[in-house]
Prior knowledge:
Oligomer: single chain
Helix content: 40-55%
Number of strands: 0
Amino acid sequence: QGENPCLFRRKMKxxxxxxxxxxKVMKEYSHGSLHSGNKKxxxxxxxxxxxxxxxxxxxxxxxxxxxxxxx
Length: 71
């Protein structure tokens, strides 16, 4: 209540481009419309492949590599 609203706005961070891209790709996968390669390629049926595509596209979107989790 006593907090300055400007400080509160600074605390809230907007989603980065890479997170937005990952969400978009995973939503396509869940709807069954994610294709490997281009739209003429086969539909992705494996979740691990969808995650790999999402990470790859997020790296392209930001220009910075995101680290992959180890096994």
